[in-house]
Amino acid sequence: MTHARGERSALCDLLDRLGPDEPTLCTGWTTSDLAAHLVVRERRPDAMAGIALKPLAGYTASVQNRLKARHSWPELVGLAREPGGVYRLLPALDEAVNTLEYFVHHEDVRRAQPEWEPRELPPDLEQLIWKRVSSGARLMLRRSPVGVVLHRLGGGVVLGGPKGSSRVEVTGRAAELLMFCFGRQAHARVELTGEPQAVAALREATLGV
After folding, report:
1. pTM for this one?
2. How far apart are CA 34 and CA 14, in angstroms?
3. Which domains does the chain have, with CATH numbers?
4. Of all residues in the chain, what percent are helix, strand and coil, respectively (each to 5)?
5. CA gap 156, 150 in Å, rounded
6. Which residues of 130-153 are buried (b: 16+ CB within 10 A; e: fewer)?
7. Residue 10 to residues 73, 107, 175: CA-CA distances in angstroms?
8. How many Å apart are CA 173 and CA 129, to the nearest integer?
9. Which of 41, 74, 184, 192 is the most exposed place for a label (fewest CB within 10 A)?
10. Is residue 164 scored above 80 in pLDDT?
11. Per-residue confidence at 88, pLDDT binned at 50, 70, 90?
12. Can you tell me whether residue 11 is helix, strand or coil?
């Protein structure tokens, strides 16, 4: 099983157990909202654009709400469980695009629950996550108000954020750095080092793709 399929399956198992009304780290979204988002993202090309483009977000939200109304919770999770659209036809594309998507959303649900703890990841998944963090740091940190130095425990350093400004060092495992850079700063197990004002600004910044 690929990492994309593994994270998808684990997320859907968790959704099945929790039900449709539990919180997530996605602002304003319950588990049912997240499940509907995943279905729209892969199975409703007419509504995909609104995920990234604010002028079209209203239509996308209406499609998500209709999906929630039309399908029972097991049906909605079932639709999310199987790759849809092009990802069903091209497993390699599913792995390339959806590994981080489903990893982050799996953690969005896990970390919104009480007493969560970081998972022990397979070394190859940890390495893959760090590779994606390394290549995507400048994009994910483009809105940072301060310079950022990402230190991966176990080796690796990446720079992001504006040059010539105060810098904050962020240290943690690859998965924690990913969650931080995806805008989940409050739920990432990392250590921040720098001037207190710069650290506070980074904690509150809007990060992610």
Report:
1. 0.93
2. 12
3. 3-110 (no CATH), 124-204 (3.30.1050)
4. 60, 10, 30
5. 8
6. bebbbebbeebbeebbbbbbbbbe
7. 16, 10, 16
8. 10
9. 74
10. no
11. confident
12. helix
Q: Angle between the 123-140 and 3-18 helix axes, to the nearest 10 degrees?
A: 90
Q: What span, in angstroms and rounded, lies between the C-alpha atoms of 162 and 184? A: 20
3-state secondary structure 20-76: CCCECCCCCCEHHHHHHHHHHHHHCCCCHHHHCCHHHHHHHHHHHHHHHHHCCHHHH
User: Using CA atoms, how far apart are residues 12 and 39, in angstroms rounded to an integer?
Assistant: 12
Residue 85, SS3 per DSSP: coil
Alpha carbon of 59 to those of 54, 64, 66: distances in Å?
Answer: 10, 9, 11
Amino acid at 85: G
Q: What's the CA gap between 29 and 81, in Å, rounded?
A: 19
